[in-house]
Design a protein that fits this description.
The chain is globular and about 50 Å long. With about 120 residues, the chain is of the alpha/beta class. Strands 2-3-4-6-5 form a five-stranded mixed barrel. It starts with 9 loop residues before the first strand and ends with a helix. Helix content is about 15%, strand content about 35%.
């Protein structure tokens, strides 16, 4: 029996992770970026934020990643919706991306989405 394929992490901003968002689904594979607000080595739980939005990250499967509050991190993993409707990302990949311009990152993400939408409409040649 073949093992299931691992889905790529759809790039989303933390502001987009609202219950009404199409990305806010149990098990959705996502890539998120934000500034580390808190980290507990005991529970392996981190909280990242971008503007007024934040997300809890379960980092129990990550190895060799040093966490520093106020550094910027990017995580890829699956979204787990808790019974109280709180989202937690079960991270499978994490990296420090200090130096990234989050405003420019958001602009690039919007341009990427526009490009993909424009090209998905066109028939293949």
């Amino acid at each position: 029996m073949a093992s299931p394929a691992i889905n790529f992490g759809a790039m989303v901003t933390l502001q987009e992770l609202q219950p009404s968002s199409p990305f806010y689904k149990q098990g959705a594979s996502l890539r998120v970026t934000g500034r580390l607000q808190a980290y507990s080595a005991e529970t392996a739980m981190a909280t990242i934020a971008d503007g007024s939005a934040s997300l809890r990250i379960n980092t129990q499967h990550l190895r060799g990643l040093n966490f520093r509050v106020d550094s910027v991190y990017q995580f890829i993993g699956e979204l787990l919706i808790q019974p109280d409707n709180e989202a937690v990302l079960q991270a499978r990949v994490g990296r420090n991306v200090d130096g990234i311009d989050l405003s420019l990152y958001h602009q690039a993400l919007q341009l990427l989405r526009k490009f993909q939408a424009d090209h998905m409409k066109e028939p293949a040649n």
